[in-house]
Amino acid sequence: MNNNVVKSMQWFVVHTLTGHEQKVKKLLLKLIEEEKLEKSFGEIVIPVENLVRIRKGKKVIEERRLYPGYIVIEMEGNDENLRLVNSISGVTHFLGSKTKPIPLEKNEIEALLEQVKESKEKVVTKIPFVKGERVTVSDGPFTDFIGIIEDVYPERERVKVFIVIFGRRTPIELGFHQLKTM
Description:
The chain folds into two domains: 10-125, Alpha-Beta Plaits; 134-181, Roll (SH3 type barrels), CATH 2.30.30. The chain contains three helices and twelve strands; from the N terminus they run βαββββαβαββββββ. The protein is of the alpha+beta class.
């Protein structure tokens, strides 16, 4: 949708049921199209960041909501549009007073959009292990050995683990994907 169609567009924060943000966005886009209100609405943003998790030994990139239960909508703040958004299943209310939603200030929306842009560009690695945790080696020559994590190197996605080999505590360095928590 074109952001610069109408000068009187403002950004509003809409509270939704947590986990229903995508559903609300889809329904709203469908209603906007059905009612031919494309000129009254701009972007609809669900603030998310990319997160890398290790699942079953594989790297998985998933999106995590920065503000669960909230979406940000660029639109004309007239009664018809407000009623349309409020009528969607999963929407609880606009942020603001009971009678009048309060649009975001220009600096607030710029900061939010910048945060979303940066979060989408950089990928945050979820560190699945902590120092002192007991783990089982799931891959490599030490498969099925049990060890204790001594150090975590998140930037390299590796850990130093102490395992017992021939009765001696031996440090080995393994990737996140080579371990399972116990």
